[in-house]
């Protein structure tokens, strides 16, 4: 990654009003969709699409850091993805290990902090240990936070929050009437992160797929037909330009 901002994204952002909010989103989330279709179109196995998707992540991470985005959250593996064939799941786990081994030093030197959301321990103790070690090694970095959603499902996240708050109320630790939006947000996996500004989904699908349902309440949504392995700096900067041109009203008018 370089330290120079991406001119097209920054210039577009600086020239737009965006409802008085920052024209460069602090927090961007991406549903990285289309790896399988990309591979199928080329007569390749699905794992080839996932490998190409890992390269797209590298490009996008660089573009996000250069543009001044502070948090990039990626939907790497949903709680529903366990329905996929065992061979594909094994390939995905292997790719995660490979990505961490190859990219960790680069991420560390470029000031990227890793954070995990979801029940990543379901991938087994070895991969969980590797993930936790990567989080620990990058904990002091502050240029950009890369949040990886692994075995994540938003409905399960919200159910867990409800259960935790109910338990506290039963134990007398909190009054039921004190449970408000702030109390819920404090228990979310994304607690302490900036509010989500922009969610991008690639591949032309127009749905959230159980991703960050609470957090997207006032986020800008952008759906692009670009398949994830083809997503690059130009596509990311185009998304930032579209974000900068929107008027964010937050229900106020």
TrEMBL record:
Q: Which GO terms describe its biological process?
A: polyprenol biosynthetic process
Q: Example GO molecular function term?
A: magnesium ion binding
The record ties this protein, via Pfam families, to:
Prenyltransf
- Low complexity composition bias: residue spans: 8-21
- Cofactor note, please? Binds 2 magnesium ions per subunit.
Enzyme class, top EC level, equals: transferase
* Quaternary data: Homodimer.
- Family named by the database record: Belongs to the UPP synthase family.
Tell me what this protein is called.
Isoprenyl transferase
């Amino acid at each position: 990654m370089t330290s120079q901002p991406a001119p097209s994204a920054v210039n577009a952002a600086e020239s737009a009003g965006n409802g008085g909010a920052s024209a460069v989103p602090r927090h961007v989330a991406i549903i990285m969709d289309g790896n399988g279709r990309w591979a199928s179109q080329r007569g390749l196995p699905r794992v080839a699409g996932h490998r190409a998707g890992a390269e797209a992540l590298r490009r996008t991470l660089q573009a996000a850091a250069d543009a001044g985005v502070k948090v990039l959250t990626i939907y790497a593996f949903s709680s529903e993805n366990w329905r996929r064939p065992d061979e594909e799941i094994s390939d995905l786990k292997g790719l995660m290990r490979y990505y961490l081994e190859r990219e960790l030093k680069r991420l560390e030197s470029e000031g990227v902090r890793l954070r995990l959301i979801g029940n990543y321990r379901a991938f087994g103790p070895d991969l969980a240990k590797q993930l936790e070690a990567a989080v620990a090694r990058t904990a002091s970095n502050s240029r950009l936070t890369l949040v990886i959603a692994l075995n994540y499902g938003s409905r399960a996240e919200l159910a867990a929050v409800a259960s935790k708050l109910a338990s506290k109320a039963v134990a007398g630790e909190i009054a039921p009437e004190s449970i408000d939006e702030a109390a819920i947000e404090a228990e979310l996996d994304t607690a302490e992160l900036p509010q989500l500004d922009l969610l991008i989904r690639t591949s032309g699908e127009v749905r959230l797929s159980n991703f960050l349902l609470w957090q997207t309440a006032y986020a800008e949504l952008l759906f692009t037909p670009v398949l994830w392995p083809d997503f690059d700096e130009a596509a990311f900067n185009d998304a930032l330009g579209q974000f900068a041109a929107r008027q964010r009203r937050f229900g106020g008018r």
